[in-house]
Every structure is written in structure tokens, then in C-alpha cells.
Write a structure and sequence with these properties.
Elements lengths: L1 E5 L2 E4 L4 E8 L5 E9 L6 E7 L4 E3 L7 E6 L4 E6 L8 E11 L2 E7 L3 E6 L1
Parallel strand pairs: 2-11
Antiparallel strand pairs: 1-3, 3-8, 4-5, 4-9, 5-6, 7-8, 9-10, 9-11
Length: 119
């Protein structure tokens, strides 16, 4: 399985970026996909997720600013990030939530793309 993120960069506060994650080589049934981020010295956190039925979820810190979407034909996941804040600075990873007999777990991570927001 290969997940490749792109679209990160450096922007000023208030700016926008759109992250993409292309997925290949996966065959196991999924429960969903998501975006995680980790800033230096902070916990790895789930920013947003989208289930196979299209249901989306967001961390409170990004609600109203970030939008997750997917193109199933291209097997690509996106994260539109608007009104970026300095505290959004982190490395962003996409991940697959895979279905197992016992439930769903987050597996198969990408290498990540850096987002840096300056004031």
C-alpha cells in the first residue's frame, strides 16, 4: 500500500492550502480515510475523517475552516484548509481506516507533507 501526500507549504495566517493524498495498492475493505497531523512536541491528532458512506468529521479546532473530500474514481483524498492559523503548523499525514473482523483501525500511513503557517 502506498499513500503519497502533496500540497503542503508555507503560508501566512489567513491563507489557504489544499492537501492531496493519492492511494495505491490497497485491497482490504476500508471503513474510511482521514488526515492526521503532528506538531513538534505535540500528540499525533486526527484532524478530519471521511467514511465510505461520505460522512465527515472534524476536530473542533478546524471546524468551519477545513473541508475533507475524496475522489473515489482517482482514489484520492483531499483536505482544503482555509483561514489557516499559526497553530495549524504541523506535518500532515493521510491514513486509511481498514475493516477487520473486530472493527476498524487506522493503518497504512503516508510519509506526510509539512504545513507551516506564519503570523
Amino acid at each position: 500500500v502506498q499513500l503519497v501526500e502533496s500540497g503542503g507549504g508555507s503560508v501566512q495566517a489567513g491563507g489557504s492550502l489544499k492537501l492531496s493524498c493519492t492511494i495505491s495498492g490497497t485491497t482490504r475493505r476500508r471503513c474510511g480515510m482521514g488526515w492526521f497531523r503532528q506538531a513538534p512536541g505535540k500528540e499525533h491528532e486526527l484532524v478530519s475523517s471521511i467514511s465510505t458512506d461520505g460522512t465527515t468529521a472534524y476536530d473542533d479546532s478546524v471546524k468551519g475552516r477545513f473541508t475533507i473530500s475524496q475522489d473515489t474514481a482517482k482514489d484520492t483524498l483531499y483536505l482544503q484548509m482555509n483561514n489557516l492559523k499559526v497553530e495549524d503548523t504541523a506535518k500532515y499525514h493521510c491514513a486509511l481506516q481498514l475493516a477487520w473482523a473486530t472493527g476498524c483501525t487506522w493503518n497504512d500511513w503516508g510519509q506526510g507533507t509539512q504545513v507551516s503557517v506564519s503570523s
